[in-house]
């Protein structure tokens, strides 16, 4: 059975014709203990504004029966059930079932390898609810949802609304949940299984954390920090948005095999990879704090107020990304959030926005299949950076006043971009149409450069966007740079006159990182710039310099050696633990993948030396040793790392992977380590060691598990694949570059997150040449949108790497 993708035109027709009043959905999970089927009954009450007309309801599950106003309906075609001769008031009842073993989207069954316990979850973004039960699966047909779930007796069942009525029945227990507020279908959820639960009060709410039983000790370890962050976020957003979170209960469920994180109203679902088996580094906590606040911000931006159609997906994702950094800096201990954002996500956005897959933050989305390709670095971090620039442009308090008015007016409804712009224009008294067109409806990255005392701004099409940004002037004080002036300028043309000291030793464009633009130093300071970055006084000023150096590497304006010089210099003085690990990752990548073969070992040695020096600081030790595990030059250095790792099993696994890359036998050590590692996914760590091994049989076995069987948890696919594609192992890897090309037509299977992950992570960065790129780009033209976008992005990155390696 084919399944058609809903078009925007179809959605508009259906939205104009129908008003959905309520869903009552009964779900039976009792078969999942021993089998794979889930049965559902969806009762939809809805009105038709044009009685006598027809429409359709979405249902891509196996339909057992469908009855409209007492009349049986014909079989579903292309995932749709036709609805003819609608009354003014209608009741539709559809009984369906879904086989979780078939790999379809929407409902998933997971088995914990540690103890065999079974867990189940739904995941409905963007339009996967229709794969489980009948619904009008589009964001602007919001309605209350009341769920009744039958599950095994020892299971907990979690959904959007709290305080379910639970009763014992012959097959287990029945959980009856109160109706939710009006929600889009993709914001609803059912999580079920024998979960371990922790609850506390915070910000006037009943907060819950859940994990599979085998991860209970990890959840206990992290619970206090998770509850603290959630409480801080709830308080900050309630004040800044002028609206407290409107439900008493707020749950967060760490679920095995979940592909990412999802902001379901009142019940956020996380992949339980976020519960780090090894004690998290500061950078990992920084990242997770922003993810947690991102999903929390979605309760307002996405759930309470929802975009009308997927062309305004940025209203959800970019705003949640921006708000997570805003809240982290203002309300939590993670005050370097913007510096961490710059070191990680924003760098990715700069790259994508200067490549073949660039697009406006807001773009036409003709159907939902096209929407799947917009979950990318432009929608998220570039969109977040644009909103940071907008807040700078109008002022923080004015920005918050506009948001308060926006939520008050549109709560539980749907909006477009213009609704938000109108609210912010009203609060600021500024005409924001030029800002909207330049920032949200124009693709590409502006270039900002200094020519003595003039800032030159050029846009992708010639004219730059409006910017408010800072230019810092620095003078040397001993071995440091001290800022002696900061000029904030509003750019509205190609050339902006500056009033800065003429005798500065360094001028920093976009100081404080207030805007999104590709910046360059004055040519007079270019050669000394890579060393001077380390002399800058703050994490954010050093981050702006690192970003400039990295962007120059990507655009063939700097060498890998210059990028490594900049990064290792900054690492030697960096005071923010939040950016140490991202910078180490960049330094390793520059040395390992961007450098000419003749320079590679020397640059890796420079990074290894930086790691070894950093390891002496307890605040950076774990991150530094992780970096050393990727750069150790010989078995003697690996031995030193194993000694330093002690009982840290994560570091021991990383050391073994490096030992394998260097060609030393590791099987006996790996089996011994596997036997004493309590992590339920320790077998994945063992697979990583095998992936790193330069042996044809091992490569074949890893490819079988990773690709053919798709047995590796989605969160670990990248780490296994990165070791599989180890530099210097070209003789073993050439066949798999060809195998990747053969996979392209099937990479879309499994939904947005698996398609994105497999397309990007399996893409070879070694053992290929320009002819491979040409064939990959040709295949991309016929691929689904999400695969095409990610494949072209990887080809662009590799083409730049190959150029840099010359």
UniProtKB/TrEMBL annotation:
Reactions catalysed according to its record: Release of an N-terminal amino acid, Xaa-|-Yaa- from a peptide, amide or arylamide. Xaa is preferably Ala, but may be most amino acids including Pro (slow action). When a terminal hydrophobic residue is followed by a prolyl residue, the two may be released as an intact Xaa-Pro dipeptide
Peptidase M1 membrane alanine aminopeptidase domain: residues covered: 230-434
EC number: 3.4.11.2
SUPFAM superfamilies noted in UniProt: Leukotriene A4 hydrolase N-terminal domain (SSF63737), Metalloproteases ('zincins'), catalytic domain (SSF55486)
All residue ranges annotated as the Aminopeptidase N-like N-terminal domain in the record: 116-186
GO biological process: peptide catabolic process; proteolysis
Record-level Gene Ontology MF annotations: alanyl aminopeptidase activity; metalloaminopeptidase activity; peptide binding; zinc ion binding
Keyword entries, A-Z: Aminopeptidase, Hydrolase, Metal-binding, Metalloprotease, Protease, Zinc
Domain ERAP1-like C-terminal: 506-786
Top EC class for this record: hydrolase
GO CC annotation, single: extracellular space
Cofactor(s) the protein needs: Zn(2+)
Family that this chain belongs to: Belongs to the peptidase M1 family.
Protein name in the entry: Aminopeptidase N
Organism annotation: Kribbella turkmenica
Organism lineage string: Bacteria, Bacillati, Actinomycetota, Actinomycetes, Propionibacteriales
């Amino acid at each position: 059975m084919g399944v058609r993708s809903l078009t925007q035109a179809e959605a508009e027709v259906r939205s104009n014709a129908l008003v959905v009043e309520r869903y009552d959905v009964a779900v039976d999970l009792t078969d999942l203990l021993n089998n794979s089927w889930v049965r559902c009954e969806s009762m939809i009450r809805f009105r038709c504004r044009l009685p006598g007309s027809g429409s359709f309801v979405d249902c891509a599950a196996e339909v057992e029966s469908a009855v409209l106003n007492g009349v049986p309906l014909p079989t579903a075609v292309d995932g749709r059930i036709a609805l003819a001769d609608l009354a003014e008031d209608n009741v539709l009842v559809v009984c369906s079932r879904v086989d979780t073993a078939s790999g379809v989207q929407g409902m998933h069954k997971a088995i914990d390898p540690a103890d065999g316990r079974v867990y189940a979850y739904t995941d409905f973004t963007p339009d996967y609810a229709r794969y489980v039960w009948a619904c009008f699966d589009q964001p602007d047909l919001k309605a209350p949802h009341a769920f009744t779930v039958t599950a095994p007796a020892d299971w907990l069942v979690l959904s959007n609304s709290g305080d379910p009525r639970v009763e014992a029945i012959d097959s287990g227990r029945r959980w009856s949940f109160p109706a939710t507020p009006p929600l889009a279908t993709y914001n609803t959820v059912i999580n079920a299984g024998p979960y371990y639960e922790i609850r506390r009060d915070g910000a006037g709410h009943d907060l819950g954390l859940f994990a599979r039983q085998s991860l209970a000790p990890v959840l206990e370890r992290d619970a206090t920090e998770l509850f603290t962050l959630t409480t801080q976020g709830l308080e900050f957003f309630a004040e800044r948005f002028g609206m407290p979170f409107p439900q008493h209960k707020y749950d967060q469920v760490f679920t095995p095999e979940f592909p990412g994180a999802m902001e379901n109203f009142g019940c956020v679902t996380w992949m339980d990879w976020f519960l780090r088996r090894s004690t998290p580094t500061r950078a990992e906590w920084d990242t997770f704090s922003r993810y947690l606040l991102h999903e929390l911000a979605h309760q307002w931006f996405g759930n309470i107020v929802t975009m009308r159609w997927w062309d305004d997906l940025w209203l959800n994702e970019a705003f949640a990304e921006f708000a997570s950094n805003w809240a982290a800096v203002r309300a939590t201990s993670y005050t370097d959030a913007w510096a961490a954002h710059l070191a990680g996500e924003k760098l990715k956005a700069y790259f994508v926005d200067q490549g073949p897959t660039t697009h406006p933050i807001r773009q036409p989305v003709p159907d939902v299949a096209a929407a799947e390709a917009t979950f990318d670095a432009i929608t998220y971090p570039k969109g977040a950076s644009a909103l940071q620039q907008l807040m700078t442009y109008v002022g923080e308090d004015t920005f918050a006043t506009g948001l308060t008015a926006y939520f008050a007016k549109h709560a539980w409804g749907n909006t477009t971009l213009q609704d938000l712009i109108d609210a912010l224009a009203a609060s600021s008294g500024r005409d924001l149409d030029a800002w909207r067109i330049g920032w949200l409806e124009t693709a590409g990255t502006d270039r900002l450069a200094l020519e003595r005392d003039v800032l030159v701004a050029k846009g992708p099409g010639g004219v730059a966007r409006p910017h408010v940004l800072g230019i810092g002037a620095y003078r040397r004080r001993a071995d440091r740079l001290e800022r002696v002036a900061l000029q904030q300028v509003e750019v509205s043309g190609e050339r902006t006159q500056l009033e800065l000291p003429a005798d500065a030793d360094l001028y920093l464009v976009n100081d404080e990182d207030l805007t999104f633009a590709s910046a360059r130093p004055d040519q007079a300071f270019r050669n000394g710039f890579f060393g001077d970055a380390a002399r800058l006084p703050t994490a954010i000023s050093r981050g702006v310099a690192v970003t400039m150096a990295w962007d120059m590497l990507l655009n063939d304006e700097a060498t890998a050696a210059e990028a490594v010089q900049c990064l290792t210099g900054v690492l030697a003085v960096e005071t923010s633990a939040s950016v140490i690990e991202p910078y180490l990752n960049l330094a390793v990548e520059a040395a390992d993948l961007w450098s000419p073969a003749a320079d590679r070992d020397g640059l890796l040695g420079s990074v290894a030396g930086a790691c070894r020096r950093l390891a002496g600081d307890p605040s950076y030790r774990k991150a530094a040793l992780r970096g050393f595990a990727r750069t150790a030059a010989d078995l003697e250095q690996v031995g030193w790392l194993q000694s330093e790792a002690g009982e840290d099993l994560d570091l021991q696994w990383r050391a073994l992977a490096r030992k394998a890359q260097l060609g030393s036998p590791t099987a006996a050590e790996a089996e011994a380590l596997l036997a004493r590692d309590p992590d339920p996914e320790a077998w994945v760590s063992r697979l990583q060691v095998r992936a790193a091994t330069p042996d044809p049989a091992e490569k074949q076995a890893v490819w079988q598990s990773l690709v053919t069987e798709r047995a590796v948890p989605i969160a670990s696919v990248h780490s296994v694949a990165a070791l599989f594609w180890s530099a210097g192992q070209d003789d073993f890897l050439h066949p798999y570059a060809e195998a990747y090309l053969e996979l392209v037509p099937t990479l879309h299977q499994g939904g947005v997150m698996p398609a994105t992950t497999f397309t990007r992570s399996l893409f070879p960065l070694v053992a290929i040449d320009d002819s491979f790129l040409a064939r990959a780009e040709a295949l991309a033209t016929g691929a689904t949108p999400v695969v095409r976008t990610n494949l072209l992005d990887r080809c662009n990155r590799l083409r730049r790497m190959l150029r840099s390696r010359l």
